[in-house]
Amino acid sequence: MIWNPVTPAGSLYIWIRVAKKLFLESYGCQMNEADSEVILGVLTKNGYELTDSVSSADVILFNTCAVREHAETRIYGRVSQLSPLKNKNPELVIGICGCMSTHLKEKILDEAPLVDLVVGPDSYRRLPELIEKAVSEPFVDVRLDKYETYADLEPKRESGVRAWVSIMRGCDKFCTFCIVPYVRGRERCLTLPQVLSQVQELADEDYKEIVFLGQTVNSYRDKENGFDFVDLLEKTSQIEGIVRIRFTSPHPIDFDDKTIEVMKNNSKICPQVHLPLQSASDSVLDKMKRRYNLSYYDELLRKFREAIPGIAITTDIIVGFPTETEEDFLKTFDYMQKVKYDSAFMFIYSPRPGAKAFNWGDPIPHAEKVKRLESLIKLQEKITLEIHRKEIGKKTLVLTEGQAKKEKGHLFGKNPQYKTVVFPQDGIKAGEFVTVSIKQATPHTLLGVVE
Ligand code: SF4
Question: Is residue 287 part of a domain?
Fold first, then answer.
């Protein structure tokens, strides 16, 4: 908060409070979105007000991702566009938060001289003082803190229907292609009472759906009180007002039969699971240090489908990992064709300095990687459409979220499988559950009418 003098008729000065304006832009995964809510919580408590215009901002923060090189290049491009604003207002603070900060540290200041502040993901509670410091000289704070969970901070959330709750930070898996353990630190979890108290508050605020977040969310452990992920799911489901529970992103190796059993028997836990495969070749999985082989993964997927009929299964795939041969790639293609995921996030391998696989170079030509990616995308779009078409004529329960973007006069929401369902508006409000009869399907949406 800053104080500005106002001179009314007469000559006395009256001082009024003027909130500083914050422009905050998020990149990358849902964990980063949740971190942006923490940042916003910290700064609004300290007198900042969110603005959606860079030109009116006193502080511009980019909450960044470092998982792919492209994301970092994009941020540099974004910062360079701010030069006229900085010339006009030298006190404007431009800051980089998130994974890119811990990955590149001071190098960001060399690469992007307009940047005043570089803040790592464990330093957000110090943001108000760091911003103050950065007004006079560039400042870097990228210390990782093995105890920081932000459990006591109140995130500032936007949506009133679904709340994303980070239950852990960091990762201990060290997959060879990934820099998350280096840029977000080692795994640490909130205690179960801390999580439950957050969920209770969200229920009191009328949120209907909770999505638990963690880099390997199902490895959650409250070591202090002896609780695990299953306890977390069960106890959360006892909170009145919370109707749906989801979680992302789990690691296949951290699932056990108990988790599948609780998902099967507890109607609040949605029939949806993200099972990141990355590759269907055992030799690539081994080089990626994914800790499972295809037969383990396939058995897990089979158990989910057998226990929870109608479950939606999604995945992540990387093409062009340094050791991936054409034969390895075809194994992934064939497996995806066989298991038919509901949807898949598919990426070209991006070598990241600091990750172990970086030392193995990037031997597969870009054009070949693009070819592999395009063939997977084409395959998956066909499969998703097939799966969606099977929904035509069925009914599904939708939690209404708001106005549909493309279809005028329509609302949208998610069904239990987390599929987007669009339907004509009919006096329904966000937060209401409606049964929708599906009439049409596209690869991305189900369209229907309210029963
Ligand atoms: S499990 Fe592997 S891919 Fe996921 S965040 Fe951890 S190291 Fe990265």
Answer: no
Indicate the number of domains in the chain. Answer: 4
Judge if 419 and 445 occupy the same domain.
Answer: yes
Answer yes or no: is 286 within a domain.
no
Same domain? For 133 and 9 the reply is yes
| Gap from CA of 207 to ligand 1 centroid (Å) | 29
Instruction: Say how many C-beta atoms besides its own lie within 10 A of residue 109's C-beta.
Output: 18
CA 3 to ligand 1 centroid distance, Å = 46
For residue 4, what pLDDT is reported? 52
Q: Which residues of the chain have pLDDT under 70?
A: 1-18, 159
> Residue 251 CA: which ligand 1 atom is closest?
1
Ligand 1 pocket test, pick from 216, 255, 287, 292 with the greatest ligand atom count within 8 Å of Cβ, gives: 216
pLDDT of 167 reads: 98
Q: Which pLDDT score is estimated for 114?
A: 96
- Burial code (b: 16+ CB inside 10 Å, e: under 16) for 137-172 equals ebbbbbebeeebbbbebebbbeeebbbbbbbbbbbe
Cβ contacts of 330 within 8 Å, gap of 6 or more: none
Q: What is the pLDDT of residue 14?
A: 58
Identify which of 215, 223, 285 has the alpha carbon closest to the alpha carbon of residue 251.
Answer: 215
Is 149 domain-assigned? no
Strand, coil or helix: 383:
helix
Residue 284 domain-assigned (yes or no):
no
Instruction: Return the CATH number at 426.
Output: 2.40.50.140
Phi, psi torsion values for 360, nearest 5 degrees: -95, 10
Phi, psi of 282 (to 5 degrees): -60, -35
pLDDT of residue 2: 46
Domain of residue 254 covers 159-270
Q: Does 444 share its domain with 313?
A: no
Q: What is the CATH number of the domain that holds 31?
A: 3.40.50.12160
Q: What's the gap in Å between 320 CA and the centre of ligand 1? A: 17
What pLDDT sits at residue 41? Answer: 96
Determine the residue of 174, 175, 289 to mutate for testing ligand 1's pocket, defined as the one with the most ligand atoms within 8 A of the Cβ atom. Answer: 175
**Do 26 and 67 fall within a single domain?**
yes
Closest-CA residue, ligand 1 atom 4, reads: 215
Query: 196 and 177: one domain?
Result: yes
| Residue ranges lining ligand 1, Cβ < 6 Å | 171, 173-175, 178, 180-181, 215-216, 251
Q: What is the pLDDT of residue 344?
A: 98
* Domain identity same for 131 and 186: no
For residue 19, what pLDDT is reported?
85
Residue 290 CA, closest ligand 1 atom number: 2
Q: What is the pLDDT of residue 283?
A: 98
* DSSP character at residue 278: B
Q: Give the position, in ligand 1's atom list, of the atom nearest the Cα of 172.
A: 6
